[in-house]
UniProtKB/TrEMBL annotation:
It comes from Sus scrofa (Pig). One of its GO terms (biological process) is innate immune response in mucosa. Keywords: Signal. This is BPI fold containing family B member 1. Residues 1-21 form the signal peptide. One of its GO terms (molecular function) is lipid binding. The gene is BPIFB1.
Length: 472
């Protein structure tokens, strides 16, 4: 077996080649206007906002908003009105758009309503078509405890959005009454809509915010370990709500193995462009996820039985170094592969690799306790991501032995590069299938389905992995 001090030296040697830039914060979830709009629309439905509109106290509002001459007009009109109520209402498509300061979002909610007016003069119901738009601002506000949080404020009516008209022309008398009612509704309707709908809108946004906070808490299963996120800060950047997240890796007992919570304003985020949301995961967090699937392990292979062609070629390669050593190899020869420490995930624009420290030992027979030689190998594999539904999959291929070090030898000193080709083929044939088998379960990206999307897509930027919903 290799000396532990040699392992330490080898780890330090490889580490000098794996230094890369660190991006902060660890994880960023960016939600575009489409996501906010859909979430808020659904919460308004859950809060039955349409029912609130149908219960608007129009007559009371007319009376409360009238003064002086208008008050006398209301009194004169009310004696001709049996009832006045909203008979149908709908909330049209919401709009969420950034404000010029880049730190606030404007929410516009267009309303379309029909009110029925009845008078004892005739049995015909007079219908009024009413259109008004409510708007509010989403911004980040610092609470009393010093925490930043998303809030919705400044709920009001959009100037110039009010439209009230008679749906059907009736008799001169009814038209005259309707026109007077419309005149009274012009100042009354915006006030009553603001008073009745704005509280519901604020409650709906609180529901959205609570959903988002619960969303970031969804754990990601990594075989026996799990990755959990926590909210570090939140902001509005341009058209996106940005949630900066910390991360921690926990074992099956809930003990924290690794913690990622450093945050610096230097993360170069990709533009949100046309995607509804993006999840940007820093390289070291991705590496922790990969490590959870590929812990250090030991593989022992009876090479002559499993891969006889490679066993024959290995014997020929050793024979070129020492015929005496090659003659010791028997059909029960064993190749032992030990993966050391943890792999290192290297990501750059458009491509990724996994670097590993590997110790390989060759034993002449299955009864030998001392290897012919021990090699320390710095290997890298190409890493290919792909997606299956909302799961992020990783496959390793094209392994290369970048550096080979002779750590121990019972056959004298030799140049380990002489064995590079055969050693690389053994690793490709033995180690890679084993590791890909462990990676086969994939990493569930629960945020994808939680935000209403079925499949995920991925891309690589410098030192980070970006997950977005797949285009249909």
């Amino acid at each position: 077996m290799a000396n532990p001090r040699i392992f330490t030296f080898l780890c330090g040697l490889l580490a000098t080649h794996l230094v890369a830039a660190t991006l902060c914060p660890p994880v960023v979830l960016r939600l575009g206007p489409e996501v906010i709009k859909e979430k808020l629309t659904q919460k308004l439905k859950d809060r039955d906002a349409v029912h609130v509109l149908q219960q608007l106290p129009l007559l009371d509002a007319m009376q409360e908003s009238s003064q002086g001459v208008l008050a006398r007009l209301v009194s004169s009109i009310l004696k001709y009105i049996t009832w006045l109520k909203v008979t149908s209402a709908s909330i049209l498509q919401l709009q969420v758009q950034p404000l010029p300061n880049g730190q606030e979002l404007l929410v516009k909610i267009p309303l379309d309503m029909v009110a029925g007016l009845n008078t004892p003069l005739v049995k015909t119901i007079v219908e009024l078509h009413m259109q008004v738009e409510v708007e509010a601002i989403i911004h980040v506000e610092t609470s009393e405890t010093g925490e930043d949080q998303l809030v919705l404020s400044n709920c009001s009516n959009t100037r110039g959005s009010l439209r009230i008209s008679l749906l059907h022309k009736l008799s001169f008398l009814l038209n005259s009454i309707a026109e007077k009612v419309i005149k009274l509704l012009v100042p009354a309707l915006p006030k009553v809509v603001k008073g009745e709908l704005c509280p519901v809108l604020r409650e709906a946004f609180e529901d959205v915010r609570a959903d988002l906070l619960n969303l970031v808490k969804l754990p990601t299963s990594l075989k026996s370990d799990r990755l959990e996120f926590e909210l570090l800060s939140q902001a509005i950047e341009g058209s996106a709500v940005q949630l900066n997240l910390g991360a921690k890796l926990l074992d099956s007992d809930g003990n924290v193995i690794m913690l990622f919570n450093d945050t610096v304003d230097s993360l170069n985020l990709p533009p949100l462009s046309d995607v509804p949301f993006s999840l940007i995961v820093r390289k070291d967090v991705v590496n922790a996820a990969v490590v959870a699937f590929l812990p250090p392990e030991e593989l022992m292979v009876l090479l002559d039985y499993v891969l006889p062609e490679l066993a024959h070629r290995l014997k020929l390669s050793i024979k070129a170094i020492s015929e005496k050593a090659a003659d010791k190899l028997e059909p029960t020869q064993i190749v032992k592969i030990l993966t050391q420490d943890t792999p290192e995930f290297l990501v750059d624009q458009g491509n990724a690799k996994v670097a590993q420290l590997i110790v390989l030992e060759v034993f002449p027979t299955n009864e030998d306790r001392r290897p012919l030689f021990t090699l320390g190998i710095e290997a890298t594999s190409e890493a290919q991501f792909y997606t299956e539904d909302d799961r992020l999959m990783l496959n390793l291929y094209d392994l290369s032995s970048d550096r080979i070090h002779l750590m121990n030898s019972d056959i004298g000193l030799f140049n380990p590069e002489l064995l590079k080709d055969i050693i690389t083929e053994i690793l490709i044939s033995v180690l890679l299938p084993n590791e890909n088998g462990k990676l086969r379960s994939g990493i569930p990206v629960s945020m994808v389905k939680a935000l209403g999307y079925e499949t995920a897509s991925w891309s690589l930027i410098k030192d980070a992995l970006v997950v977005t919903p797949a285009s249909s």
